[in-house]
Design brief:
- The complex is a heterodimer.
- Chain A has helices at 2-21, 25-45, 49-74, 78-87, 90-111, 125-132, 137-158.
- Chain A is mainly α.
- Chain B has a single domain (3-97), classed as Orthogonal Bundle (Helix Hairpins), CATH 1.10.287.3510.
- Chain B is mostly helical.
- The model of chain B has no long low-confidence stretch (mean pLDDT 88).
- Classes of the chains: A mainly alpha, B mainly alpha.
- At the A-B interface, helix 1, helix 2, helix 3, helix 6 and helix 7 of A face helix 1, helix 2 and helix 3 of B.
Chain lengths: 167, 102
């Protein structure tokens, strides 16, 4: 189990480093998604499978899709076509692919039903839910208010008066 | 839970946080700054989860859920700000927003 942790941590650090040094925002997004997936495996090795699933679904899924939408919105027209062409070149996807193959190999390794490969202490969704809606229920309410505030704020920032719509 | 795993996961969280902070300080593209902030939030969540695993409590994962919700709201507002900045300046350079006159 420790070896899985160390390989995932190394992949996370490498992917984050590559993300910071990319010039193309889409390439950086690919590396950031790989970094989040690696951190999800680290969560699993620490005995937090629920947090690992949420990391994949919400962070690497929902939030990164928002980023991809905005990056695609930012360069419209001919630049977008050039970006699409550049995405098909080998240099842009070979790096994230290698890192993801390492993570997939770890995943297959952990699927083996060997008790030595399971995390020592697992804190599952049931305990997290009991704690979340028990002592932390005020935090849940505050998070809902925060999300509502974020929704209204994003709508307000994205709203433009009808007469001034020139872009 | 072996203690060296907890220590090393905290070290990993620290490294990821430092990398994110370096990205915020070095990059001038606002989209990259937002992505680096995501890395920093993720590193904070990793620190909470490793502490929760150390004490065998669910509280670490609960705090991670709160970080997740906060990151969602932050990304929605931040990306809306990026789009507004781009419409105003035709650029996503953070230096282009140094003058805040509407």
């Amino acid at each position: 189990m420790e070896i899985v942790f160390y390989i995932s941590g190394a992949v996370a650090i490498a992917a984050t480093l590559m993300m910071l040094t990319r010039l193309n925002a889409v390439h950086a997004l690919l590396y950031l998604i790989v970094s989040l997936l690696a951190v999800a495996i680290v969560f699993y090795t620490l005995g937090a499978p629920f947090a690992a699933a949420l990391e994949v679904i919400i962070y690497a899924g929902a939030i990164m899709v928002l980023f991809v939408f905005v990056v695609m919105l930012l360069n419209l027209g001919r630049a977008a076509i050039r970006t699409e062409k550049a995405l098909l070149s080998r240099a842009s996807w070979i790096g994230p692919s290698i890192l993801v193959v390492i993570l997939a190999a770890e995943f297959v390794y952990m699927l083996d039903r060997n008790p030595a490969k399971a995390p020592p202490v697992i804190i599952g969704p049931a305990e997290v839910g009991l704690s979340l809606f028990g002592p932390y229920v005020v935090g849940v309410e505050l998070a809902s208010m925060l999300l509502l505030g974020g929704l209204v704020g994003a709508y307000h920032l994205g709203w433009r008066p009808r007469g001034r719509r020139q872009n | 839970m072996p203690s060296f795993l907890i220590r090393d996961s905290l070290v990993l969280a620290g490294i990821l946080f430092a990398l994110g902070m370096a990205g915020v300080l070095v990059r001038r593209n606002v989209v990259f700054v937002l992505m680096s902030i995501e890395v920093m939030l993720n590193a904070a969540g990793l620190a909470f989860i490793s502490a929760g695993a150390r004490w065998r409590q669910a509280d670490g994962q609960v705090v991670f859920l709160f970080i997740l919700a906060m990151a969602g709201a932050e990304v929605a507002v931040g990306l809306a700000l990026v789009l507004a900045l781009y419409h105003q300046n035709q650029s996503v350079d953070a230096d282009a927003a140094s003058r805040m006159k509407g």
